[in-house]
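To whoever picks this up:

The parser on our side crashed when reading a file containing two proteins. I've narrowed it down to the boundary between the first structure block and the second sequence. Both blocks are reproduced below exactly, byte for byte. First block:
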Amino acid sequence: MQLNNSLFTKSLIFQSAAVACYFYIGYDFNRENFFGLLACFSILFATYLFLVKSAKSKSLDQLMVIAVLYRLFFILSIPTLSDDYFRFIWDGQLILNSINPFDFLPSEVSVEFPNKAELLAGMNSLNYYTIYPPVAQIIYFLGAWLSPNSILGSIVVMRSFVIAAEVGIIILLPKLLQLLKMNPLNSLWYALNPLVIIELSGNLHFEGIVLFFFLLAVYLLALQKEKLSAVAWAFAAATKLIPIFFLPIILRKLSFKKVALFYSVFGIAFVALWIPFYNSTLLPHFLQSVSLYSKTFEFNASVYYIIRAIGFEATGWNIIETAGPWLAITAYLAILIILLKKKIISWNGFFIALLFAISVYYLLALIVHPWYSITLVFLAVFTRFRFPMLWSFLVVLSYWAYSNPAFQENFWLIALEYIAVIGFAIWELMKDQNKSPILNFQKSNYL
């Protein structure tokens, strides 16, 4: 790195501490140790801010190599903060045994396969049908196919895809920033973010694959290759569904003729990816699982928890089955209003609109897992807003729930998380109202 002696010494100290924390979280961590996790994240975020703030154009390539190495530290680890991987491997084993993973609840599967009992014991989704779209399912299958007898082996195979996607982002992100006449150093806000590294490469969440395809879609869109962009967008949505919510913005970015072509190609590609899994039970089973996210599950929510508390006072019971769907409808309407508000001229405005649309969606959601904020970190790279980076640190407070056997959340910590993030976002908006994404999606002087 191109640093003077003082900066080099500080960098060496910070990075040594970061390496120790990444290895600890990856290989020797118990998620019940909340304060250990918080201490590690504090060290990692201090390192993150130092590296990003001290970065120069000449050091970008070196820092990107460091970002890749951090991810590779986790290659042989078993996720310590999430047990979702049990379901990933389970779905992959079903496909390997010629069983459609959307057809059966885990308890209904009678076929025997390696590690079945261990997968069932570790799974957190025994009572609902799989909710993971086809691109993710293909990777689960490859994990089971290439390592049918080893849970760790399947994890390594799936993680290889996640890390490959992350490397793709790290390579493509500065190129897109340069193409859009933005500062390529902004890519470090994503590449070096500790939550991104730990939750994707470490805990095996597939947002990295989603964001790679979405980044590719935007890159192709910027090159005016709309049909290829639509295909990449479809792959993103067929990995996790969230990019579907981004689609209305195309109406404000392209001409009517190009919009029709984009949506047509997207629709064909998206449906085609589902064809291998299609039968009469696919849609009802999938929608049944999706509905659980608006009527049953709750974790690290903000607006919903306030409404729930009011509901308890008024009725004496949890009003989730009523409040959940209404909040979902409100969130979808808010997304449409933000994305369709004005003609979006600048790419900066494009990303600002997406950033605030999805931020509102998560503020109204019943479930906000830590890795959900990664999408906001990615979008913020293209804007002047940094509240998602603060959120990516404070969202770790939600892991308090795993520190006690009852999985009881600490609502004071959740309140701290959201008050700080919302307060910082409002402060950023008020710094220059002429650049407010709520008021103006037109050309910006930013970068």
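<<boundary where parser fails>>
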Amino acid sequence: MRSIALSSSRSKPHVAPFVGPPWYVAAAWLVAAVLAQATLVHYLAFRSVVPSFVLVVVIWYAIRVDARRAALYGLAAGFCEDALSSQTGAAWTIATCVSALLAGVLSRGFFADSIPLATGITIVATLVRALLFWIAMALAGYPSGLGAMHFHEALIQAVLNAAVIVAAMIVARRFEASRA
């Protein structure tokens, strides 16, 4: 009888408790990032490249949750970007979803509030997202002759996104410290 009880308890997968931000907080940050991206971020351009607040929010969420939730959040964020774009098809949706999934997988086993980890993941996710975006655009018929220019822009955007996430994490730490 004891072996039956043990075998049935072993067949149940262990499910870790959800430790990410509440859905309404994550949704509010995504809406704020999409609105800022569409209206204000162009004022922060450096060499005609702007940081992606949407991707930074996606990475912030992805390093705090499991890979499945990260991918769904990235899917929603990419869909919002494609909805605001006129000719990207589903390129942002695909690129942001895969980047969020990658960020969620890379952050497993680390502390979500680690600034070096978030910075590294942001740089990698920015470059992967740009690569996937331009592959999707090329498959849709966009001319691929400007690859070097897009690569340089992706490198600059990776640095800008890393700076944004570092600044956001420092501000969040100071805000949390003042509330405690």
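After patching the parser it read the second block fine. The chain has one domain: 20-179. The chain has seven helices and no strands.
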